[in-house]
Design goal:
Length: 171
């Protein structure tokens, strides 16, 4: 352990003044008992993002190809139908991201939650897990009223979308 190692308080003391006391004592964060999977996932995802700042937020051609092939098998779709579904996903995702941007600017967190939920469902159906995970992270942060750089997360989603659009041109 060193001074940069994040310490997380794991306790049944969940009152706001308790949490502030932990943070004042140098704790990075707090998770209340009983531990909820979503809280732990959000914390780990936040810690991981801090470690890999500057990470490339794109999808490789291979990642996309494998995801879409897996989705085609799971959904039992022909290649032509899958191609049409993928194109519709691109159009819809662009609209969703625009709505997410708007919701952040207007501080409309219910709208942000709804759009993140839509994106999570759509990307999950196509097995595009990086988008699903990012949408889930946003959804959980809104639900738990956790601080998160929503604009930064949406920017990363736009990066994923650009990778998908490039892939579509190769089809």
């Amino acid at each position: 352990m060193n001074q940069k190692t994040p310490i997380v308080a794991l306790t049944s003391n969940v009152l706001e003044e308790d949490i502030q006391r932990f943070k004042s004592a140098g704790m990075y964060s707090h998770i209340g008992k009983p531990v909820k999977h979503d809280d732990l996932q959000l914390l780990l995802s936040d810690l991981f993002e801090k470690e890999v700042k500057g990470k490339d937020h794109s999808l490789s051609t291979q990642e996309i190809k494998v995801s879409l092939e897996k989705a085609a098998v799971l959904l039992e779709l022909t290649p032509d139908i899958m191609k049409g579904l993928f194109k519709k996903f691109l159009t819809t995702t662009e609209l969703i991201l625009e709505q997410m941007d708007k919701a952040v600017k207007e501080e409309s967190y219910d709208a942000l939650f709804a759009q993140a939920h839509k994106l999570r469902g759509a990307s999950s159906s196509l097995c595009i897990h990086k988008i699903t995970d990012k949408a889930n992270k946003i959804e959980n942060a809104v639900k738990k009223q956790k601080k998160l750089d929503f604009s930064g997360e949406i920017k990363q989603l736009y990066g994923f979308l650009e990778s998908l659009k490039s892939y579509e041109k190769e089809l």
